[in-house]
Amino acid sequence: MTSQDHDDVLADGIILPSLETPTLTKAELADLLFERLGLNKRESKDMVESFFELIHGSLVQGKDVKLSGYGNFQIRRKAPRPGRNPRTGEAIPINARQVVTFHASHKLKGLVQGDIPASEDFE
Q: How confident is the model over 26-50, as pLDDT tens digits?
């Protein structure tokens, strides 16, 4: 196996280590900002943290988050419903709750499906 077999290459040439469940961490995002934009490491880390804090804060307030060209994070309210313990078969009520859903944009879907060439800028 070559080293390429163990790595995932993103559309813009960024190479990430391949894992069973690929994960891009906040630290890796900060390193990419440092390397590609020339920000210092502290600024890069602060920018990544601020970005996720904004998304988190909006979702906690019940507001949807729209990232142009990427997709939407939305709060969905689920009604209470009857449930069942699969092990015992006992009926258990499931309370009303809110969940976060993500819907990819048409552009992101096109890139994933290969309908839009990866060489095009992802705006």
A: 999 999 999 998 889 999 999 999 9
- My answer on whether 6 and 53 are in the same domain is yes
Please give the helix or strand (H or E) that residue 8 lies within, else none: strand 7-9
How many domains in the chain? 2
Q: Please say which residue of 22, 46, 62 terminates a domain.
A: 62
Question: Of 96, 74, 70, nearest to 83 (Cα)?
Answer: 96
The residue type found at 21 is T
Using pLDDT thresholds of 50, 70 and 90, give the confidence band for residue 18.
low
Phi first, then psi, for residue 40 (nearest 5°) are -75, 165
Distance CA 117, CA 123 (A): 13
Q: Is the pTM of this model over 0.85?
A: no
More confident residue, 78 or 19: 78
Q: How many residues does the chain have?
A: 123
Do residue 48 and residue 70 come from a single domain? Answer: no
Q: Is the distance from CB of 30 to CB of 44 less than 8 angstroms? A: yes
